[in-house]
């Protein structure tokens, strides 16, 4: 797809799988498609900001690998996820596993952060700080992190 002009003119059915790789929420995918044409990439990226309900959040994070793990499936989002986590040092693997387990026991879902630009130590510090959140607050934080990831991926999708 040649940039934003290609995105704006592509058949909706061609865009839906790519958008689902950015944020796996059908309502969001439909809204992004329906709002075309976008005058610029910033207007498209602004669509990443969305208030998701609990089920949408849980559905969206289901396809994300745990921090420090490889994606369970191939495809564009697996490649993006690997690049997004590139700052997470593999030498922290044991600490990340333990932190992920504690988080999942506390909240019942995987820990998700927009890891782009974060070191492994920064990720661990963020995870530790978020352990004090109540479950509803944590879902709002996850919603914001999903929006950050979606924004990054939308930029890549139209690059």
Give a quick precis of the structure:
The protein has helices at residues 3-9, 12-22, 26-34, 41-46, 54-62, 76-84, 93-107, 120-130, 135-158. By secondary structure, it is an all-alpha fold.
What's the topology here?
Layout: H1 3-9, H2 12-22, H3 26-34, H4 41-46, H5 54-62, H6 76-84, H7 93-107, H8 120-130, H9 135-158
Q: Could you characterize what this model shows?
A:
- Helix 5 crosses helix 9 (135-158) and helix 7 packs parallel to helix 8.
- The chain starts with a helix and ends with a helix.
- It is elongated and about 45 Å long.
- It is 64% helix and 0% strand.
- The protein has helices at residues 3-9, 12-22, 26-34, 41-46, 54-62, 76-84, 93-107, 120-130, 135-158.
- The model has no long low-confidence stretch (mean pLDDT 89).
- It is mainly α and 159 residues long.
- It has one domain (3-158): Orthogonal Bundle (UraD-like), CATH 1.10.3330.
- The chain has nine helices and no strands.
- Residues 8-155 form the Oxo-4-hydroxy-4-carboxy-5-ureidoimidazoline decarboxylase domain.
- GO terms for molecular function: 2-oxo-4-hydroxy-4-carboxy-5-ureidoimidazoline decarboxylase activity.
- Pathway: Purine metabolism; urate degradation; (S)-allantoin from urate: step 3/3.
- One of its GO terms (biological process) is urate catabolic process.
- Its EC number is 4.1.1.97.
């Amino acid at each position: 797809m040649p940039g934003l002009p290609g995105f704006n003119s592509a058949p909706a059915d061609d865009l839906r799988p790519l958008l689902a790789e950015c944020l796996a929420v059908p309502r969001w995918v439909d809204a992004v498609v329906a709002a075309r044409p976008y005058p610029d990439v910033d207007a498209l990226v602004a669509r990443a900001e969305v208030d998701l309900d609990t089920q949408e959040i849980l559905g969206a994070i289901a396809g994300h690998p745990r921090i420090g793990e490889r994606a369970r499936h191939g495809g564009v989002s697996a490649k993006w996820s690997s690049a997004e986590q590139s700052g997470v040092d593999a030498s922290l693997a044991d600490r990340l596993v333990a932190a992920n387990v504690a988080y999942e026991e506390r909240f019942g879902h995987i820990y998700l952060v927009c890891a782009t630009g974060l070191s492994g130590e920064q990720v661990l510090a963020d995870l530790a700080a978020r352990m004090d959140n109540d479950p509803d607050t944590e879902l709002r934080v996850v919603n914001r992190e999903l929006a950050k990831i979606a924004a990054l991926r939308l930029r890549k999708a139209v690059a």
